[in-house]
Amino acid sequence: MSSYKLYYKSSEIEFIIEFFATKKDAEHWKDFLAFCIQEFPFENMYIEPATP
After folding, report:
1. Cα separation, 8 vs 24, whole angstroms
2. What is the superkingdom listed in this entry's lineage (predicted)?
3. pLDDT recorded at residue 1
4. What is the pTM of this model?
């Protein structure tokens, strides 16, 4: 089963925001955090497959 991580990365810091079961869920939360609550800049969030 694949899983994906949503993480934040800037020139000063990098951290995982959350793990998701599907890429679609990760994309939804990326949009939500960037546009709805404006927690993190969209261009600083990335989605990648999570490695075990």
Report:
1. 17
2. Bacteria
3. 61
4. 0.86
- What are 15-34's pLDDT values in tens digits? 999 999 999 999 999 999 99
Average of per-residue pLDDT values in the chain: 93
What tokens were used for 33? 């955090």
At CB < 8 A and 24+ separation, what contacts does 34-43 make?
Answer: 40/8
Distance separating alpha carbons of residues 21 and 52, to the nearest angstrom: 13
User: Per DSSP, which regions of 1-52 are E strands?
Assistant: 4-9, 14-20, 45-49
Dist. CA 27–CA 33, nearest whole Å: 10
